[in-house]
Amino acid sequence: MKRFIITSLSILALVGTQLATPAAAQGRYARAPSDTVLVAPDGAILDYMPDGGDAAISRDGMGRRVFIDRWGNVIATEIRADSYGRAPGAYPPPPGRAQNGYDPYGQANAGGYQDYRQYRPGEPGDITGTIRRDASIERLPLNDDGMIMDDGAETGALEQPLPQPNLAPRSNKPVITPTNKPLAEIVALQVFLDRQGISPGVIDGHLGDNVNKAIAAWQDMTGETLDPNNSEDIMQRLTYEGGLPMVDYTITAADAAGPYVASIPDDYAHKAQLPAMSFTSVSEALAERFHMDEGFLKSLNPGADFTIPGTIIKVVNPGPAKTGEVVRVVADKAKKQVFAYGADGKLIAAYPATIGSSDTPSPTGTHTVQRIALNPGYTYNPKINFKQGNNDKILQIPPGPNGPVGTVWIALSKPTYGIHGTPEPSKIGKTNSHGCIRLTNWDATELAKMVKPGTVVEFVD
Questions:
Q1: Alpha carbons 284 and 295: distance in angstroms, whole number
Q2: Closest to 316 in 3D by CA, of 249, 245, 255, 252
Q3: Per-residue DSSP letters for 57-116?
Q4: Of 126, 128, 385, 433, which sits with the fewest C-beta atoms within 10 Å of its C-beta?
Q5: Binning pLDDT at 50, 70 and 90, where does residue 369 land?
Q6: Which of the 8 DSSP states describes residue 383?
Q7: How confident is the prediction for the chain on average, in pLDDT?
């Protein structure tokens, strides 16, 4: 076992130099002149041209035409047929992923490889804790008081909220401060915490406060002591729970197709004009799928063209989303961290968070979850929300991961406040919010699937 761990660490130490070779991967896709094809969000090729009366045409960040229906849903993106490569689902596993039936996400696979067809941009499935392809997605806008509109449903607090368990006591175990470590070992530590449901935020190869807070929360959850400087111990734990912290990934045609938008403007009035608050690039979409900082993803794959299907890149190997029934959520303003507890009072998950500011403080006391919306639109009302730029009118901002509340809105019983995602995951725990609880999109989605109306949310100082 020790020899295996040492070998694994040696492999990790070479991550910075043994990078993907995009030229070789891209060589299979000659750019000969060819017709275009229309690729649906699920990777299928349309065999018809959307009628002009039923679809509007927009442009994404690469100048490609995007066909959008009257409800704002993307029908298809037009891309070069030669860049599309193979048919959806026809991608073989990259070298090294089919060894002994190993699945890079920690699941044995009868065919010896991962079925890439289950991963689509913005919908990678349960592996990363984000929205599954077969999940029913509620695209619910926020109304004037900041709550989710739900066909006239009651917005008042539940008459009989769930019982409030006693919080598990915080342990007194000292947190061992990580020393200067090689990048690969830091990534291994971050991936381990992420797989445990104790989020370190974005995985970026940097030690910081979010990592230290995650270590403390893990010790509270398990009662064990974690030495972040013991790389052999970390690697052994990873071996038993999902395998290596980094793996190869082959960019698919659906990844490259998007849809994407050219850029996300700062002004809310300009945001309201976009067809959707989509990702702006393949690298941004993949970084979020694998819980990574986009700059870190690019640094691991210098020279890689993320827009070419077949390109093999290095990515982080996160674990499946945490599951369970959360009956109490504690938002700790001082720690800038959110803790999710089960009915037995035990800690289920913890997340770094951005909670309020001096100008727009978060609530105090105890509240409850009112309702939950995945991929919500956002209604900006300057009379009851914060003032953004020179905007003095109500604006309807479309759904998308780059929207003001990201991919999730968990409305609280205190009007206009909620727990939500963010378009800037790298800033979680480092900046202020407009009074709400802001998490990364993947953490917010994981939490949303464990709470329900009536779940207690307590703000502590």
A1: 9
A2: 245
A3: EEE-TTS-EEEEETTS-EEEEEEEHHHH-SPTT-PPPPTTSSGGG--TTS---TTSS--G
A4: 126
A5: very high
A6: T
A7: 75
Interstrand relation of 365-374 and 408-412 (parallel, antiparallel or unpaired): antiparallel
- The C-alpha atoms of residue 456 and residue 346 are separated, in whole angstroms, by 15
Inter-residue contact 94 to 249 (CB < 8 Å): yes
Is 436 tagged catalytic? yes
pLDDT of residue 71: 61
- Specify whether the CB–CB gap between 41 and 121 falls below 8 A: yes
Task: Tell me if residue 420 is catalytic.
Answer: yes
Q: Is the peptide bond before 259 cis (omega within 30 degrees of 0)?
A: yes
Q: How confident is the model at residue 432 (pLDDT cuts 50, 70, 90)?
A: low
Catalytic residue, chosen from 291, 367, 420, 434, is 420
Model pLDDT, residue 350: 98
- Residue 357's Cβ-side half-sphere holds a number of Cα atoms within 13 Å equal to 9
114 Cβ neighbours under 8 A, 6+ residues apart = 93, 97, 103, 104, 105
Q: Of the ranges 24-38, 195-209, 368-382, which is most confident?
A: 195-209
Q: Count how many Cα atoms sit within 13 Å of the Cα of residue 146 in the half-sphere of its side chain.
A: 21
Which letter, b or e, does each residue of 178-187 get, where b requires 16 or more Cβ atoms within 10 Å of its Cβ? beebebbbbb
Phi-psi region of 394 (alpha: psi -120 to 50; beta: other; left: phi over 0): beta
Q: Which two tokens stand for residue 161?
A: 């909220």
- Residue type for 281, please? S
User: Which pair of tokens denotes residue 153?
Assistant: 């449903």
Q: Which runs of E-coded beta strand occur in 164-311?
A: 246-250
Selected catalytic residue, list 291, 367, 434, 436: 436
pLDDT at 299 over 80: yes
CA neighbor of 284 nearest in space, from 139, 99, 423, 106: 423
419: pLDDT strictly greater than 80: yes
Conformational region of residue 125, where left means phi above 0, alpha means psi within -120 to 50, and beta covers everything else: left
Residue 99 CB partners (closer than 8 Å, separation 6+) = 112
Share of the chain above pLDDT 90, in %: 47
Whole-model pTM: value is: 0.67
